[in-house]
């Protein structure tokens, strides 16, 4: 089971608590986790990744094991601590403005 922590606006949209758990086949990558997340919570489609390009939306970042995974390949394997459920994958909404 992979643990995913969502930012407040996506929690509200999906009607979930701060953390969700997902069954993801090995090898788990950011792409497979986001595919599973969007399959389980279809209302999140297009909120984390663009519908057409599947690229990360601006102002969203991905973190795991104190590392920023936002610019990694979406097909790169996730750290073992994430795939084992010891550490969560964090989707963080950035704040901008003045």
How would you describe this structure to a colleague?
This protein has 98 residues and is an alpha+beta fold. The protein is built from three helices and five strands; from the N terminus they run E-H-E-H-E-E-H-E. It has a five-stranded mixed sheet with strand order 2-1-5-3-4, with helices on one face. Strand 3 and strand 4 (67-68) form a beta hairpin. The model has no long low-confidence stretch (mean pLDDT 94).
Note the main attributes of this structure.
single chain; 98 residues; alpha+beta; five-stranded mixed sheet; 3 helices; globular
Task: Please outline the helices and strands.
Elements: E1 2-5, H1 8-14, E2 19-22, H2 30-40, E3 60-64, E4 67-68, H3 80-83, E5 89-93
Output the structural class: alpha+beta
Q: What is the terminal separation in angstroms?
A: 39 Å
Percent in strands: 15-25%
**Oligomeric composition of the shown chains:** single chain
Share of helical residues: 10-25%
Mean pLDDT value: 94
Q: Gyration radius, to the nearest Å?
A: 13 Å
Strand order of the largest sheet: 2-1-5-3-4
Q: Can you count the beta strands?
A: 5
Number of helices: 3
Overall spatial form: globular
The run of helices and strands is EHEHEEHE
- Low-confidence blocks of residues: none
In brief, what are we looking at here?
With 98 residues, this protein is an alpha+beta fold.
């Amino acid at each position: 089971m992979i643990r995913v922590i969502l930012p407040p606006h996506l929690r509200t949209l999906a009607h979930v608590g701060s953390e969700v758990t997902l069954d993801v086949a090995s090898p788990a990558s950011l792409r497979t986790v986001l595919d599973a997340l969007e399959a389980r919570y279809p209302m999140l489609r297009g909120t984390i990744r663009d519908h057409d390009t599947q690229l990360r939306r601006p102002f969203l970042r991905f973190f795991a094991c104190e590392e920023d995974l936002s610019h990694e390949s979406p097909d790169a394997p996730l750290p073992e601590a994430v795939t084992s459920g010891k550490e969560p994958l964090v989707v963080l909404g950035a704040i901008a403005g003045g």
